[in-house]
């Protein structure tokens, strides 16, 4: 007699991907399952000031929960945009 053991591995999904100011995020999946990739990019007029442009959901081991690996992208106002707002704050509101 030949016995075969079958194991079912169940991995929990990651929590919602972390939010980050002044960014957009696109995901390769909708359920945050292990292996899901989230790609961040800065909004127009903003530039990266640190963090990673992508995170990946890594499966937990044993009783550990699945977690996002990486630090979310941080964005700040582009220096040239900042200077134009400082020196010409009402330029966009001129009549005409």
Uncertain parts: 92-96
CA-CA gap between termini: 90 Å
Overall geometry? rod-shaped
Largest sheet features: 4 strands, antiparallel
Total helical elements: 1
The fourth-level CATH homologous superfamily of the domain at 23-87 is Complement Module, domain 1
Give a structural overview.
The protein is mainly β and 96 residues long. It has a domain at 23-87: Complement Module, domain 1, CATH 2.10.70. 9% of the residues lie in helices and 29% in strands. The chain has one helix at 79-87, and strands spanning 23-27, 37-42, 46-50, 54-58, 67-69, 74-77. A 4-stranded antiparallel β-sheet has the order 1-2-4-5, with no helix packed on it. Strands 3-6 form a two-stranded antiparallel sheet. The longest helix has 9 residues, at 79-87. The radius of gyration is 22 Å and the shape is rod-shaped. The N and C termini lie far apart (90 Å). Residues 92-96 have low confidence and may be disordered.
